[in-house]
Design goal:
The protein is α/β, with parallel strands linked by helices. Helices cover 35% and strands 19% of the residues. The protein is built from 12 helices and 13 strands. It has helices at residues 41-54, 72-82, 106-113, 127-137, 152-159, 170-177, 194-197, 200-209, 219-222, 229-233, 241-249, 263-273; strands spanning 4-9, 28-34, 58-65, 90-91, 143-147, 178-184, 190-191, 213-217, 226-227, 260-261, 279-283, 287-288, 294-295. The strands form 3 sheets. Strands 4-3-2-5-6-8-1-11 form an 8-stranded mixed β-sheet, with helices on both faces. Helix 3 (106-113) runs antiparallel to helix 11 (241-249), helix 4 (127-137) packs across helix 5 (152-159) and helix 5 crosses helix 6. The longest helix has 14 residues, at 41-54. It is globular and about 50 Å long. It starts with a strand and ends with a strand.
Length: 296
């Protein structure tokens, strides 16, 4: 039986994390699934992910988008290249998916400033292809998936049929290869949160049918943890797409005057380093309505 657990806050205010090199620790193999563009906490999340990989905690198997606005593949390539991992596989949906883009125009800004080799979404595969190929090649119960966007790709993976990469269905492949799914989605004990309601059909399907452990990182956690001010005030950091994005976006919203809320960064942290000592977990069951509203 799958286990669903909900993160609960123990320490909710500002914290600083120093990632020490630990060569003895086996890196966590992780696939990062993101709605990169709709909000810029995704930028913080991919930065934390690469920092954890630099410190030996994570092995980034792929970065896939759950949105399909033109340019999202290039945006992911900019960050992977900046962090010296240009070869990480990138996926963008080919079928029905949201085209959510940022109103602050940070994606356009970094696309105009930085170089990248992936020039179009057409140059990368569909995320389901990426998922199936990578999962089939990994040891059983080894892969952590962290999703900080919509459930579109995960629903499509669950529904996928046997192919050249694996004779297993998507659900069978997930059950065999995935250790856990860590998801920034929902508001607890009940509420309405964007990652769930934007593609509510996929959200409901995944929450009902996912055959492995799920850890939910709710809206109420990330809204209390602020990120970005020390970064944008550090003038020694130059030619950084991460600093550029936070510098551009933080001044545009009154709610960000103390830093951007950090929903997605929390999910990445917990996916790789676990929930202790920052949080505790509570086992239970999520209920997702047709509207995308949720309860625990």
């Amino acid at each position: 039986m799958k286990k669903l657990v909900l993160l609960q806050v123990m320490i909710v205010f500002c914290f600083q994390i120093i990632f020490a090199q630990n060569s003895a620790r086996k890196p966590v193999p992780v696939i990062f699934d993101t709605d990169m563009g709709g909000d810029y906490d995704d930028v913080g999340a991919i930065t934390v992910l690469h920092a954890l990989a630099d410190s030996g905690y994570a092995n980034i198997l792929a970065t896939v988008a759950s949105v399909k606005y033109e340019g999202v593949a290039s945006v992911l390539d900019i960050f992977n290249t900046y962090f010296k991992r240009p070869g990480i596989p990138i996926g963008v949906p080919k079928g029905t998916a949201l085209e959510t883009k940022d109103w602050q125009h940070w994606t356009d800004t970094i696309l105009a400033k930085y170089t990248y080799s992936v020039k179009s979404n057409k140059d990368v595969p569909d995320p389901v292809t990426i998922y199936r190929k990578i999962l089939a090649s990994q040891p059983d119960k080894s892969v952590t998936i962290v999703t900080v966007g919509f459930y579109t790709n995960l629903a499509n993976l669950l529904k996928s049929k046997p192919d050249q990469y694996s004779p297993l269905t998507g659900k069978e492949l997930i059950k065999r290869k995935v250790k856990q799914l860590v998801s920034m989605a929902g508001k607890y004990p009940s509420g309405r949160e964007y990652n769930l309601f934007a593609d509510s059909v996929s959200s409901k399907f995944v929450c009902r049918n996912w055959p492995a452990r799920i850890v939910f990182d709710g809206f109420e956690i990330g809204e209390k943890i602020k990120t970005g001010l020390p970064l944008i005030r550090n003038e020694k950091i130059q030619n950084s797409p991460v600093r550029d994005v936070f510098s551009l976006c933080i001044p545009k919203a009154k709610e960000d005057e103390f830093g951007r809320m950090s929903w997605d960064e929390v999910a990445v942290l917990v996916a790789i380093k676990g929930y202790k000592p920052w949080f505790k977990v509570r086992e239970g069951r999520i209920q997702v309505e047709n509207s995308g509203n949720n309860s625990w």
